Amino acid sequence: MQTTARVKNPLPAPTTCPYDGGPVEIVNNSAIYGREYGEWPWAFLCRSYRAYVGPAIPLGTLADEPTRDARKRAKAAFNPIWQSGAMTRTDAYIWLARQLGIENHEECHIGWFDVATCDRVVAVTHQYM
After folding, report:
1. H helices, E strands: number in the chain
2. How far lies 81's CA from each of 40, 84, 97, 108, in Å?
3. Is the pTM of this model over 0.85?
4. What is the number of other CB atoms lying within 10 angstroms of the CB of residue 53?
5. Whole-angstrom Cα distance, residue 4 to residue 123?
6. Cβ pair 101, 95 in contact under 8 A
């Protein structure tokens, strides 16, 4: 199955940085990581803020370092709920969406969250565990 067929909620490619309103460029991911990664080595980058997202179909929003770190913490807290088998992945996202007040669980993506929402994910997940 092609990647594009599996993505249910693709985001539009970013053109403006949400942090400073500056331009977003398509760059080879070596500009971010120091070397090229993957079959599709492209990413969207705001150079002034070092905010980036990839790949060809953005699965999250442009994120600066604090936002990327917060998303990693949120995933580390949340993923064990469904990885442990306590819930299916879909049921875990339905639960998380309810906890966060997101009406449609298909719009509940950690890759879309800001730092404050990621902090809420960690808090509600720790209450669950």
Report:
1. 5, 3
2. 31, 6, 14, 15
3. no
4. 20
5. 33
6. no
